[in-house]
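Can't paste images in this forum, so I'm doing it all in text. The chain is below; anyone willing to post the predicted structure tokens underneath?
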Amino acid sequence: MSRRELREQIFKLLFRVEFNNAEEMEEQKDLFFEDEENQAGEKDTTYIREKFDHIVEKLEELDALINENAECWTTARMGKVELTILRLAVYEIKYDDTVPTSVAINEAVELSKKFGQDGSSSFVNGVLSQFA
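Text version of the structure:
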């Protein structure tokens, strides 16, 4: 799987956090990978699970960073797709040394074009530009 495909899988799994409580997420991960569309090799599955777990561990911190940098917006007011994309991107910018900031921003904008509404990519780009 390419890095872009891995990131998309992490996004789709991370999106489930908004609809399930912490106790249900282990089962949600298993269900996610049982879906034929989300099946991946063992190495990719391990990567997706580990990165997902690292992001979930830092959700409060990521949300605080997003709230500090999103002018006139709070995470509570954001669409769930945009919030999930921002969480993933901010994690990559702040904590993943293997992903350059410009790549994290570009990939987040691409995810928002694919999964978000009209204007999502501009919103995501605007918020993430505060991190660059």
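The longest helix spans residues 42-57. The helical segments are 3-15, 25-34, 42-57, 59-69, 80-95, 101-115, 120-129.
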